[in-house]
C-alpha cells in the first residue's frame, strides 16, 4: 500500500473530528446557540471531568457530507467526499469517494476494525481487538479507540495520572501512556478563557508525541465546530461537532483537511442499518487479510490474483 493511502487511513481514524463535543441548554430559553460549558479551574480533575461530561452527551454522530483533502510535500492531492457514522463505544464507518468511485473504507465494531484504500490490488486489512492488544503491528501508529475519543464519545479514565500545563492562551492535559509497547505522550489542548463565538471549539487540538524524543507523531487542530439539534428527554437541545480539522504528520510531510458538514446526532440506528455499517465487508474479488497473520510480500497476503472492484455502497 502506498504511503499516501495508508496516511489517508490514519488521518480518518485519528481525526474524524478531534474536538470533544460540547452541549448545553439554551440560555434563558432563548433562540440562540447554547452557551459553552464551564470547565472550572484548570486542574486535571476538572478537565477530565469536563471531557467525560461531554462524552455522556453524545452517543451517535452521522454525516453524509464529509470531505478530505491531503497534501504531501506541499503538493495537493485529489479531494474525496464521503460518509461517516460513529456509535459509541466502538462502532465506526467512513468511506471516501471521487468521481463515483470508492477509494477509502474504514470501519470497526466491538470485535474488530478494518481498512481498505484503493491502491492497485490492495486487499482489505482487518484485525481483532484482542490480537491488536497482544501486539499486532499496524501499518501506522494509531489506536482504534482514538476514533471515538477524537469524536468526543470516549471516556477518560479518571484514575489515571494526568498533568496540566499552561501554554500561552491554552491549557494542556497530558497523559503518559504506551501504544504497542512504545511510550507516548497524549496531549489534549484546551482554549483558555471565554470562547470568541459559538463556532470556536473548547478543545482545540490533540497531539501525540514520542515520549522518548518529544517529537510529534501527529497533531490535529480543530478550526471550527458546527451545531446540530436533537431531541432528548428534556426536550430539544443542541450539541457541537467538529467541522474543520487540520491534521499534520511532520515526519511524513503530510497535512490533511477534514470537513464534516450536515451531521445528525444521537439518532437511533436501526438494526438493519447497523448491520450494514458495522459488519466486516466481504467483497467479491477483494481479499480480506488478517493483520495478525500479515506477512509483507508473502502468504497469506499475496496480491497476485486479486482484482480491484471499487467496493460497494453499503448505505442502500
Structure characterization notes:
- There is one protein chain.
- By secondary structure, the protein is mainly beta.
- It has a single domain, classed as outer membrane lipoprotein receptor (LolB), chain A.
- Helix content is 13%, strand content 42%.
- The protein has 5 helices and 16 strands.
- The chain has a 16-stranded mixed beta sheet that branches.
- Strand 4 and strand 5 form a beta hairpin.
- The protein is globular and about 55 Å long.
- The N terminus and C terminus are likely disordered.
Q: In percent, how helical is the residue content?
A: 10-25%
- Find the structural class using helix and strand composition: mainly beta
CATH superfamily: Lipoprotein localisation LolA/LolB/LppX
Shape: globular
Describe the largest sheet: 16 strands, mixed
Oligomer: single chain
